[in-house]
Design brief:
- With 386 residues, the chain is mostly helical.
- Helices cover 54% and strands 2% of the residues.
- The chain has a two-stranded antiparallel sheet with strand order 1-2.
- Strand 1 (353-355) and strand 2 (363-365) form a beta hairpin.
C-alpha cells in the first residue's frame, strides 16, 4: 500500500500527460520572438546540426569508456587530452569492430552513422511527411518503417509495437529503460523545427518521447528541445538551459538535478571535478540515464565558456554516454554561436555528407538538411495560432 501511495505521489509530481506537465511548469517565456527571426538563422542552423555531428563523432569511438581508458587512448595517439580534434587512431577501427574508420581524422568522408544523428533526421522526415500535427502513432509508423536496429527503450518499444501493443502503451511493457537517455538524444529535430519557440519545441518532443519513455525520460527530451530552441534566440548557452527548465515540471528530479548543476557548475575547477561531482551525486545510476548525463552536459557548457572545442572536448573526457552528451552540447552551443564560430576542422571533413543506418534513408547532404529544417521552422512559425 505504501508503495502504491508513493507511486501515486510521484506521478502527481512527475506526470506523463502533457496537460499536467504544463500545469507544473514554472513561469517561462514560452516564445522568444513575435515572428520567426530569419536573419542569421541559417548560420545558427548549420552550427547546430554540424555541432551535433561533431560532438557525436568525437564521442562515439569512446562511448561509455572509463576516463582513464580515454586518457590512455589520447596518450597512445599522441594528442592532447581532453581532445581538441577527432581521434586519429583507434584500436577497434583497425578491425572494423564497433568503431568505423569513418569516425577517424584523415579517414573521414562524411558524418558517420550513429543513432544520435539518425533520429534527428528521422524527426525531420516525420515532420515533412506527417505535418506539424504529427502524432505519437506517426512516430511509431516511422520507426517500424525505417529503424532496423535499436537499443534499450527504443528496442523494447519496437518489439512491443510489432507484438501489436498500441503506440501510446508501447513504452510501458517490459521496459526498464523508461528514464534512460534514448529520448533525450531525439530532442534536436524538434528544436530545429521550432527555433525561438521553446514551448512548441517541447510539445513536439513530448509527442515523440511518449512512444518510448515516461517521466524523466520524457522530460529529458522536452528540456533539451526547449533549451536548443531557445539557443537560436539568445547569446548565452546557460541562458538557453535556464529557459529549457521552464518547459518541464519545476520539482521533477531532472529539474532539481539540472538546477543544482547550474548552481554548482561555476565553482568547478575542471572537467575531472565535474565527473567526480556526478559520480558522488548519482552513484551507481546507469551510464545511459537521462539525469546524470544531463548534468555532465550542463557542466561541459559551463566549463567551455562558449568555446566549441573546449566544450565538446571536456564533455567527451568526462565519460559516461559521452557521444550523446557531446552531441547535445555541440548542438546547443552551435545554435548560439553559429557555424562561423565553430573551427572548420570540426565540420569540413564531413564533405557535406551524412550517412545513416535508416532503411531507405541512407545518404543526405548537410546543407540540404539545414535548408529543410529552416523550411520547417518557417512552417511552424507560420502557424502561430497552434
Amino acid at each position: 500500500l505504501s508503495s502504491m501511495k508513493s507511486t501515486a505521489a510521484m506521478l502527481k509530481r512527475e506526470p506523463n500527460d502533457l496537460e499536467s506537465i504544463r500545469a507544473l511548469r514554472p513561469n517561462g517565456p514560452r516564445r522568444l520572438w513575435d515572428k520567426l527571426k530569419t536573419v542569421g538563422l541559417r548560420d545558427r542552423m548549420q552550427g547546430a546540426w554540424l555541432g551535433r555531428a561533431a560532438g557525436c563523432t568525437l564521442g562515439a569511438p569512446v562511448e561509455g569508456w572509463e576516463v582513464e581508458k580515454i586518457e590512455k587512448l589520447a596518450e597512445r595517439c599522441g594528442v592532447p587530452f581532453p581532445p581538441v580534434d577527432f581521434w586519429p587512431d583507434h584500436p577497434a577501427a583497425r578491425y572494423t569492430i564497433n568503431v568505423s574508420p569513418a569516425s577517424l581524422k584523415g579517414q573521414m568522408l562524411f558524418v558517420p552513422t550513429d543513432d544520435d544523428l539518425a533520429y534527428t533526421i528521422l524527426g525531420l522526415i516525420i515532420l515533412e511527411r506527417c505535418g506539424l500535427d504529427f502524432t505519437t502513432d506517426d512516430v511509431a509508423r516511422a520507426w517500424l518503417k525505417h529503424v532496423p536496429i535499436a537499443w534499450s527503450a527504443e528496442e523494447v518499444t519496437i518489439r512491443n509495437l510489432k507484438a501489436g501493443i498500441p503506440p501510446v502503451k508501447a513504452a510501458e511493457k517490459d521496459n526498464p529503460y523508461q528514464e534512460w537517455i534514448g529520448a533525450d538524444i531525439r530532442s534536436d529535430a524538434w528544436a530545429y523545427a521550432a527555433p525561438g519557440w521553446p514551448e512548441k519545441a517541447a510539445e513536439y518532443a513530448y509527442r515523440d518521447a511518449y512512444l518510448s519513455h515516461r517521466q524523466n525520460g520524457i522530460y529529458g527530451e522536452m528540456f533539451f528541445a526547449a533549451a536548443i530552441s531557445a539557443a537560436f534566440a539568445v547569446d548565452d548557452p546557460i541562458e538557453a538551459l535556464r529557459i529549457g527548465l521552464t518547459e518541464i515540471p519545476r520539482n521533477c528530479r531532472l529539474a532539481n538535478d539540472v538546477t543544482r548543476a547550474l548552481e554548482t557548475g561555476p565553482r568547478l575547477k575542471d572537467w575531472r571535478e565535474a565527473r567526480q561531482m556526478v559520480d558522488e551525486r548519482f552513484g551507481p545510476m546507469s551510464e545511459a540515464h537521462t539525469n546524470n548525463n544531463a548534468c555532465l552536459t550542463v557542466f561541459g557548457l559551463i566549463l567551455g565558456g562558449g568555446n566549441f572545442t573546449k566544450t565538446i572536448g571536456d564533455i567527451v573526457a568526462m565519460g559516461l554516454d559521452n557521444d550523446c552528451t557531446a552531441a547535445t552540447a555541440g548542438s546547443l552551443l552551435g545554435a548560439v554561436i553559429g557555424i562561423q564560430n565553430i573551427p572548420d576542422h570540426w565540420w569540413k571533413p564531413f564533405r557535406n555528407r551524412t550517412r545513416t543506418y535508416l532503411e531507405d534513408l541512407e545518404w543526405f547532404s548537410n546543407w540540404d538538411l539545414v535548408n529543410r529544417f529552416v523550411a520547417m521552422a518557417k512552417k511552424t512559425w507560420g502557424s502561430n495560432d497552434r
